[in-house]
Amino acid sequence: MSEQLKTPTVAAQAGGNGYKPQPTNKKWVYLFGEVKEAEAAVGGSWDGVRALLGGKGAGLMDMTRQGIPVPPGFTVSTEACNAYLAEGNNFPPGMWEQELAAVKEIEKLTGKTFGGTDNPLLVSCRSGAKFSMPGMMDTVLNIGLNDEIAETMARLTNDRRFVFDLYRRLIQMFGSVVMGVPDEAFEVVITSRRELAGVKTDSELKAQDWEVVTRRFKEIYRTFTRSDFPIDPYEQLKLATEAVFKSWNGRRAIDYRNAAGIAHDLGTAVNIQTMVYGNIGNNSATGVAMSRDASTGEKEPEGDFLVNAQGEDVVAGIRQTQPLQELNDIMPAAYNEFLTIAGKLEKHYRNMQDMEFTIENGKLWLLQTRDGKRTAQAEVKIAVDMVEEGLITKEEAVWRVKPAQVDFFLHPQLDREALKASKKIASGLNVSPGAAVGMIAFDADTAERWAKEDGRKVIMVRPETKPDDVHGMLAAQGILTSRGGRTSHAALVARQFGKPAVVGVMELEIDLDLRQMVIGELTVKEGDWISLDGNLGHVYLGQIPTVVPDIKNAYLIKLLGWADEVRTLGVWANADYPRDAQRAREYGAQGIGLCRTEHMFFETERLPIVQNMIMAKNVTERNEALDKLLPLQRGDFDGLFRAMDGQPVIIRLIDPPLHEFLPSYEELVQRLADLKVQLQHFHTLSEIDEALSEIRVKQAYLERVEALREQNPMLGTRGVRLGIIIPELTKMQVRAIFEAACQCQKDGIDVQPEVMIPLIFHVNELKVQQTALEAVAKEVMEEQGVQVNYKFGTMIEIPRAALTADEVAEIAQFFSFGTNDLTQTTFGISRDDAEAGFLVEYQQRNILEENPFGTLDVAGVGKLMKMAVEMGRKTRPDLEVGICGEHGGDPKTIAFCHQIGLNYVSCSPFRVPIARLAAAHAALAEKKSK
Amino acid sequence: MSEQLKTPTVAAQAGGNGYKPQPTNKKWVYLFGEVKEAEAAVGGSWDGVRALLGGKGAGLMDMTRQGIPVPPGFTVSTEACNAYLAEGNNFPPGMWEQELAAVKEIEKLTGKTFGGTDNPLLVSCRSGAKFSMPGMMDTVLNIGLNDEIAETMARLTNDRRFVFDLYRRLIQMFGSVVMGVPDEAFEVVITSRRELAGVKTDSELKAQDWEVVTRRFKEIYRTFTRSDFPIDPYEQLKLATEAVFKSWNGRRAIDYRNAAGIAHDLGTAVNIQTMVYGNIGNNSATGVAMSRDASTGEKEPEGDFLVNAQGEDVVAGIRQTQPLQELNDIMPAAYNEFLTIAGKLEKHYRNMQDMEFTIENGKLWLLQTRDGKRTAQAEVKIAVDMVEEGLITKEEAVWRVKPAQVDFFLHPQLDREALKASKKIASGLNVSPGAAVGMIAFDADTAERWAKEDGRKVIMVRPETKPDDVHGMLAAQGILTSRGGRTSHAALVARQFGKPAVVGVMELEIDLDLRQMVIGELTVKEGDWISLDGNLGHVYLGQIPTVVPDIKNAYLIKLLGWADEVRTLGVWANADYPRDAQRAREYGAQGIGLCRTEHMFFETERLPIVQNMIMAKNVTERNEALDKLLPLQRGDFDGLFRAMDGQPVIIRLIDPPLHEFLPSYEELVQRLADLKVQLQHFHTLSEIDEALSEIRVKQAYLERVEALREQNPMLGTRGVRLGIIIPELTKMQVRAIFEAACQCQKDGIDVQPEVMIPLIFHVNELKVQQTALEAVAKEVMEEQGVQVNYKFGTMIEIPRAALTADEVAEIAQFFSFGTNDLTQTTFGISRDDAEAGFLVEYQQRNILEENPFGTLDVAGVGKLMKMAVEMGRKTRPDLEVGICGEHGGDPKTIAFCHQIGLNYVSCSPFRVPIARLAAAHAALAEKKSK
Question: Which of A345, A618, B456, B838 has the most Cβ atoms closer than 10 angstroms to its Cβ?
Fold first, then answer.
């Protein structure tokens, strides 16, 4: 979509877009039937027609072509809009004349006359740009009415109430939408009229009431605009057309385009269409409907309609609408015709449709159709169903479901059934997905205290959040704020830590002194339960049960199967334990891209042995501890190899700094102080002895912890540096790997071990470790009498390793990008400190578009990766390259990995399905771009 | 020098060097007079002749050509050596025959006969490779003697003592050097002979004694070699020639070549030369001399000689030598001839010469000449003098003095005069330059305690050092170890921290229990004073005064002026204060490349204001503190601009994290605990009040310090991150810069301010700061009614900034590489933790060749820099690029900076002279390579 700019600038607005005067014979106006003319004007592409006539105009033209009953009308092109704006708000030559001629054509088609008193033609006027966007001019209905015509119509229809209802709507809409009269001025008239008439609803008002209202509306119009309501229908049409054009450059429209990344030089079209009346009696109706269930994806149309109403009433929610199916009871013919048309439209657009319709005296008219919005669950089911219905190809189905939608199947969701009985109390921006249920806490300290000390589930509610609030946000289930937008502190932090969040709930008034919040007339106290739907941005009162949607959803599995057929990028998983490996395989992983051996060291029964190893006073003591660890590690690897029979398993040697395995400095100081106090109260020798002995041990720990302390542990003695300084540790781990591999192979397992060295910055580090590894591997294989094929490779997670990848590849048979550390070092930031700190401010101020720990920074980190891949493959053409950082599960990053030719991405087992789909998208995108 | 390999391997030794059989008519042997033949053989280059005949052989040939009296002789080529080794220790065809023919030629020239009894010709045999290297075969003198010839010579010379002294020397040297007989076996014979004769020195032994000694030597020879001493002079010559060839592949020679990076396939030549006798009576002498003073560079020959002695006696130190000048009294003709020859050789070689000479019966012979070794001081003076004498060009003078030699003028040195009266007790490896004087401490804790608590000056003395010793090394003035080599822990750490050090002093026996060290018969106790000369690796007893050589040395200044004419790379200095700027200018800096504004914040009177700024509860409080800082900072910049009138001054906005300005966490906790204890003892209300108030303040500090604490402060909220988060701070600094600049300009100063933003990783950070800066700059300039030209630029010290330099250069008008941080992030290491930690082990194990914080890592960090320069200049061709990290003063790094086209390097004012010379070297090297 070339019209979508990455960073739109206001300077690119019409006027500054190189507009040139157009020939006077240019066609500006297209009847809905003029498909060929429109196609010819843009060189035949339907996308061009959509650009020329806007989405709505193109849709109406398309429906007309298919013989679907669409009220006749025409579209003034986006080119006309651009010309109008460029020429200082003047219609381009010939445009108005074409519009007048088009009106004549409609008159012919309808047998009615615009501005005529015989059979008056009324029209609607709507804006319609290429991309649907709020902030532009709304609809003006019933254009063409004035006092005289109203009287004629009243005579013709014999329904004075109907006509003056139309007339007052025209003045209200024209006044507010075209002339900017505050809508409240009109509303107050109706309200007082209802009071005077002693009725509760508009539908109870009589013809006479609407006549009075119409008169008052004209007075309001005059008062505000200092001119009379235009009685000339053509004047009405002209002003409405201009109003649409001008609304393209309204503040809200520009803001929206800036935010959505839509180019400012597209312009909007204007759609003029014959009015049909759903409010002309009980054989008339108006409604909206989806061709399938937008929640579940079931092949069952759903919708709402109102008998005897005009379109806007359905949306306004003044009257209780009826479900679509009941139309079958009232107007079965229209209902059946609608079903037929819905089916036809689905076939035509090869997608679920969202339609507006009106029934005028039993005759069905379609006013709009567009692809319907739907839940992730529905998206998947519809895509799969449509393939099976022959409507779309597998590739299209795969392309249609966005990887982020698979996320839905992973997060807990509010239970759909329970929701029906629940009270939605507010809505805001859906900035972080998932469901959260908890008790309201109005500040971070309370949230943290309740969560940590009392084990309560908490929703933190604040007007907005600041960096000081992060500890509360982390302790909470979810976050709710009354202020802020998609890039507010709350939104960014919530997304970064995977907390469901709803922000910018404007109707929420938080009173921190009274510890309560007020929504309209509802007051909710601190400690009360609420539930958040982060997917939709909804807030519910009470404790709504949650469900985890089934990742093994049959439709999803089918779709992912098709994705696998498309993708070329492998999807592996990060797994430390056999059970994780098992799950990864179930989700479709094709190998283990990262087994973090040190995770096993933290297990309760092992940690003391690891600590003995660290505290060892000499190599003998160290080896004693390592000897105890050996069989345990061997067992870990054995399980992993068996689980991944026939697939590669990348095992990374120990990575974190040793102090992580010891108690913290603060903890030890505290314990020693306590022990010394206790000592004073002990009396028996054995008590004192025991305490002294613990003091001795703890003091030794303290000394070691102090010695291991580093100013910047992230950049300290970890990774390969540790393996080089403590070669015995490397030897033990390698021995465990090869003993397990040999045994598995003897047992008939197809083992494919790959040993990975972390954190290298120089090929020489790899050489040292290779020598150590080869010696042990050879030794073990000779002991066991088995030859195991293995690979030796390295993480690329330090800029220097990437920059010297040609040298590194001389030793390494594979690379695996550790993009977490690579991002930290390439940016010079510490994730621990930055992510809830200045990075948030950076995103809010648009210094960074995205959190580089969430989505890979292509310009910097990505450039290093691309260099490393190219240089590495130059040295070793069959170099296996993957990514095992957290980015490996991020769709945008996966697309990049595909582009630079990685062999695989490796991510958390839970994200394997997302990655499979994202990899397929990357392959399809490449295909499309060719 | 293409023969010098970077990483020599033993596999490259002769035999594996692709040797091919040579034509039988090939010339292997060259008489000293065969200059044309030698030049023809190598295509005319003198460097080729040196490769063919070795340095010594080429020198003898060269002197012969100049008509200087050189005893006739010939050289067997290095090609012959390689052929010999390649053919399994067989002379190549024709070689021996050519050697025999050459002997005949010598016989003609001297009128003597080799192996003849008429007028016997004796010869010496010496090895000589292209590069001078120890570990190969030493000299064998007096070849050609046997019993019969000895008797003849005794008759001819009428000096039996002289002849048998020659004869015993032949057997001794031939035995030990050619046949490997332990020298001690011979020495013991002489010693017992002296005892028997009742004399103290060899010169008191009579002819008869030497006859006995000669007989005994032959017996020892037979006992050890199981063969008789060869009585055939040609056999002697042949064996000696072979021994030289074989010594090329001796263990020590190979080790030396590996260490020095000399190729293993060069081979050695063999020099056979007529013996002349300095021991043939009191009209004979032998000596060594330099053509100028090697210590001071004064144009005054210096040397030593012995009357009636053979060359080896001068070096052996058995007899007290006489200073060269005294030769004038004894043999004025020979002395004057020597002066003439020395002058001639200097002119010829255009360098100070180190010569060996012998006077035989009043006739002067030159045996060797080579460029003389000299001190840095002498190097500079000689280079400058020789330019003024018209001997060399300015460029040659510049090229001849190594940048590291300028270092000499910066470090304290042991006082030369005082040294004469001091006792040198030992020598070792000179691994870190400068002089250190202090009391011996035998462990790190003692060293630290003495230095810190008692303020004593300490020399830490250990058998070797370990990482645990670093605190002691840092506290000490210098380090002395008995073990270890150039890459030992002690050597590496000493160099890294600039501590003078002597290591590997083998004669040193340290007894840690007795707290003493023994050197021979000397015992030195802990606490005794010693002095180290790190330049030469000498250890002296006692407290020797030190002097700082004058960096304003007139010769040095002249030389640096010439360097300036040659170099294209600018040399700027890092200076924070006007006094530093002043010094930098005096030393030749052309601008300030880095002014660290925050250094001024640490000054006593300012720190409390800075702390108030950090502790501010709101923007108003913060601004109050900043308002107080403004005039102070303005004053700093004002002084800097005035000092650098007409030159650019790069001012970097605040860089370090805020917590650095607050008391440490530990300090605050301690103080609070103390205060609370004190509180219990206070009685008056005012005392209590005061204590409580301090507690309140300290508690607030503690909270702030805790909030500012970061896990990895190096990667934390510092640099531009701070400037963005606290915009008021940026504004204050920019205002101070521009207020000062405007005022200076009004006062007629040519101000050239350049404002630099630290630690960016994204161009957007720069944009934000540019906007802030431009607003303030404009405001100030309008207030002051002055327009100041300035530049806006950035540090490049984060990999991402380098990787996106094209984008960064859209905003930045200049780059300055902060290679310290860039090295840290590119390697993923923290200098604080690594440099005395695993990096030492990495260097010891050759994983890293050099400390990347000392010399720039060209392969990684340098690659990023090169990319950044290229990409930056693509965007902005006139981009100014420099380096302001510590590497900016390192000669190797400066060479690289020249290569990648930087505009300047900026370093400490003290290193400016070194940088000027290094920059000139870089330009000359480029010129030479073209």
Answer: A345
Q: For residues A560 and A586, is the Cβ–Cβ distance under 8 A?
A: no
Nearest one of B370, B337, B354 to B303, comparing CA atoms: B354
- Contacting residues for A303 by C-beta, under 8 A, at least 6 apart: A287, A288, A289, A290, A323, A324, A355
**B508 neighbors B449 (Cβ within 8 angstroms):** no
- Written as six digits, the tokens of B575 are 């200076």
Whether B724 contacts B769, CB under 8 Å? yes
Q: What is the pLDDT of residues B626-638, one digit of tens each?
A: 999 999 999 999 9
| Beta-strand runs (E) in A322-457 | 322-323, 353-360, 363-371, 413-414, 424-427, 429-432, 435-441
- The rounded distance, in Å, linking the Cα atoms of A875 and A813 is 10
Q: Which of B595, B742, B744, B884 is catalytic?
A: B884
Compute the mean pLDDT over every residue in chain A, rounded to the nearest whole number.
90
Model confidence at B922: pLDDT above 90: yes
A705, A659 Cβ separation under 8 angstroms: yes
Active site annotation includes B921: no
In the predicted model, what is the mean pLDDT of residues A349-359?
Answer: 95
Q: ipTM score of the complex?
A: 0.83
On whether the CB atoms of residues A881 and A865 are closer than 8 A, the answer is no
**What does the pLDDT look like over B121-179, one tens digit per residue?**
999 999 999 887 766 677 899 999 999 999 999 999 899 999 999 999 999 999 988 99
- Please indicate if any CB of chain A lies within 8 Å of the CB of B158: no
Is residue A178 within 8 A of residue A149, CB to CB? The reply is no
pLDDT tens for residues A318-335?
677 889 999 999 999 999
Q: Do the beta carbons of residue B362 and residue B278 sit within 8 Å?
A: no
Q: How far apart are CA B568 and CA B926, in angstroms?
A: 11
Measure the CA–CA gap between A426 and A507, rounded to whole angstroms.
7
Sheet holding A501-503, edge to edge: A424-427, A538-541, A529-533, A435-441, A458-462, A478-481, A501-503, A429-432
Q: Which residues contact B895 (CB under 8 A, 6 or more apart)?
A: B918, B921, B922, B925
Chain A residues whose beta carbon lies within 8 Å of the beta carbon of residue B762: 847-848, 860
pTM: 0.83
Contact A320, A268 (CB under 8 A): no
The rounded distance, in Å, linking the Cα atoms of B501 and B461 is: 10
CB distance B616 to B622 below 8 Å: yes
* Contact state of B724 with A845 under an 8 Å Cβ cutoff: yes
Is residue A884 annotated as part of the catalytic site, yes or no?
A: yes
Of B716, B837, B863, Cβ closest to residue A717: B837
Q: How wide is the angle at C-alpha B379 spanned by C-alphas B373 and B385, nearest 5°?
A: 125
Q: What is the DSSP letter of A862?
A: I
Number of CB atoms found within 10 A of residue B693's CB: 10
Q: Please tell me the distance from the alpha carbon of residue B783 to that of residue A249, in angstroms, as a whole number.
A: 39
A residues 766-805 closer than 8 Å to B (CB): 768, 797-800, 803-804
Q: Residue A416's pLDDT band (boundaries 50, 70, 90)?
A: confident
Query: Is B847 an 8 Å CB contact of chain A?
Result: yes
Question: Among residues B81, B125, B411, B489, which one is catalytic?
Answer: B489
Question: In this structure, are residues B828 and B852 in contact, taking their beta carbons and an 8 Å threshold?
Answer: no
Q: Which of B716, B828, B830 sits opposite A798 (nearest CB)?
A: B828
Distance from C-alpha of A758 to C-alpha of A797, rounded to nearest angstrom? 8
d(C-alpha B720, C-alpha A501), whole Å:
31
| DSSP 3-state percent helix, strand, coil across chain A (nearest 5) | 50, 15, 35
Q: Terminal CA-to-CA distance of chain B, rounded, Å?
A: 15
d(CA B357, CA B365): 6
